[in-house]
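Write out the bound-state structure for flavin-adenine dinucleotide.
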Amino acid sequence: MQDHITPRRVVILGGGFAGLFAARALRKSPVAVTVVDRHAHHLFQPLLYQCASGILSEGQIAQPLRAVLRRHHNVRCVLAEATDVDADARLVHARRPGGGVVQLPYDDLIVAVGMRQSYFGHDEFAAHAPGMKTLDDALDIRRRIYRAFEMAETAANDRERKRWLTFALVGGGPTGVELAGQIREIAGHTLDREFRRLDPAHARVLLFEGSDAVLGGFGPALAHRAARSLQHLGVELHLGTRVTDIDAHGLTVRDRDGRTTRFGARTVLWTAGVEAPPIAAALARATGAEQDRAGRILVEPDLTVPGRPEIRVTGDVMSLDGLPGLAEVAMQSGAYAGRSVRHAVEGRTKKPKPFKYVDLGSAAYIARGRAVVKAGPVHLTGFTGWLAWLFIHLAFLTGFRSRLGAVLGWSVAFATSSRRERACTMTDTEVPAARAVGPKTSPPS
Ligand SMILES: Cc1cc2nc3c(=O)[nH]c(=O)nc-3n(C[C@H](O)[C@H](O)[C@H](O)COP(=O)(O)OP(=O)(O)OC[C@H]3O[C@@H](n4cnc5c(N)ncnc54)[C@H](O)[C@@H]3O)c2cc1C
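---
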């Protein structure tokens, strides 16, 4: 029961698009909002591949959550990972980084924890083939891409050099397509004339996809255009193939006829699937909610969990009418959940209208001057698609400084093919191998 002194407590799990838009919708409400996230930043995932490929810096795609919400005086940010929900006691259990537990009581709970990379039951692939969902993933991929060229330069023989110069991407959705295009551009343009023993343009980029098309979600015409653009860039498409094994030296794939082929590749990147994080299963156990095959929570049309009107699920981790995992779905559902709580606080008794997603379309970047955009009947490709892509991403990027930085990064990359953000660290085990072939130098005095 609510008294007049303690404001209603709203706990939001996740500070991604859905969580942020829920918090923003509650900005002027007399409620105490707690945003819990296991990272201290809000991440613009659609530009992760640009950070991974060195066009944008990590600061341009990730903003401190506290800074983003600093004018929301009713919002407190908590750095912790939610591990369990006690639905009867209305309590979230969370783990702080480095140890220690926090308990967060709520009157309303908004779950916006997104999805994580799935390896379809082969978690052992993760050690050799990082996914791309977090900032750490993007920085790891950046390191692997640029390291591969360094290692190829000092490789002991041709066979080894070829392996370092072969990049395999698993998954032909937007992320796989974007990364494949970026690596070919790095090889063909960015690194031009930088190496002495190899020609980076000889790098092979292989893209493996289980279905018959890349970017299948964009429809056959755009998928066909995207495939042509990729092939024009020099990306080798392997459609209708399933990866059966990955190790440090390459991967094995099986085609539809059951034939298996081994490809040597020292860099394998995984963008093939997603699954719900463990907190979704904990919520399902606590509330009796159903989960779909990927672990998303099935919700009512008003985004509440069946039988629990105080718990709403939004964004990628919600399962409703087959809505796709897109930033716009997350923003609209987060804002809807925040507004529903606001209406309840204002004492509106009328049941809210069901959540209705307004489809604003989707876009995928292929390379400099090439993108595909689908917005209802409007289909754009090539340079016009690329211009539309630029405009959409600038409009949604959080913070003026990030936008300015992105415009600068894109201008440099477009005008000169160079990338401003190539700095990355190499691990101890890899650097000595590269050093061994260099000229002998005396130790510093
Ligand atoms: C590489 C990539 C490219 C993409 N490109 C596009 C695109 O071009 N267009 C488009 O529309 N969409 C794109 N998407 C999808 C889009 O980014 C997602 O749909 C959107 O981010 C979902 O928002 P969300 O808030 O539901 O989840 P997220 O943005 O994933 O946010 C979830 C948040 O919850 C936090 N979290 C997770 N578990 C816990 C826990 N247990 N406790 C506390 N915090 C937790 C995470 O740290 C994260 O901050 C892309 C996604 C990726 C990965």
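---
The mean pLDDT is 91.
DSSP finds 13 helices and 25 strands in the chain.
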